[in-house]
Write a sequence for this structure.
């Protein structure tokens, strides 16, 4: 007996999803590589969770990180970089709440892939740039 129409699988969509996801991830990675540091330098003193943001960055660009974790982290980092946010970054006290929420959700999904060396690199960057 055939499955009802609502339960049928769209095999064409499934076979094309990896290619679409890979293209999106490549775009996000290119954007993150290009725009992450300039944005971070501009807003470092105002960003909550700067250490977590940096650890996510290092993890996302680590060749040992699984692709699924990279995709989640690159999406969150790309959201941080976007010039248009749900809550604009220039609004005092609220500006980075949406960025922090997106980052928090991403980190919860991939926390097992963020290794001590990612966190150490983040701490080192912050301690070197604290006085700037």
């Amino acid at each position: 007996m055939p499955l009802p129409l609502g339960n049928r699988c769209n095999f064409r969509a499934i076979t094309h999803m990896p290619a679409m996801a890979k293209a999106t991830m490549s775009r996000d990675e290119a954007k993150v590589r290009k725009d992450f540091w300039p944005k971070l330098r501009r807003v470092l003193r105002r960003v909550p969770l700067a250490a977590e943001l940096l650890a996510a960055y290092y993890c996302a660009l680590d060749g040992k990180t699984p692709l699924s974790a990279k995709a989640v982290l690159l999406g969150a980092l790309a959201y941080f970089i976007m010039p248009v946010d749900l809550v604009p970054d220039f609004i005092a006290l609220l500006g980075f709440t949406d960025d922090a929420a997106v980052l928090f959700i991403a980190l919860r999904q991939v926390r097992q892939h963020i290794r001590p060396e990612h966190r150490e690199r983040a701490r080192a960057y912050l301690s070197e740039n604290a006085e700037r």
In short: The chain has a mean pLDDT of 79. The helical segments are 11-43, 50-60, 67-81, 97-110, 116-128. Residues 5-128 form one domain.
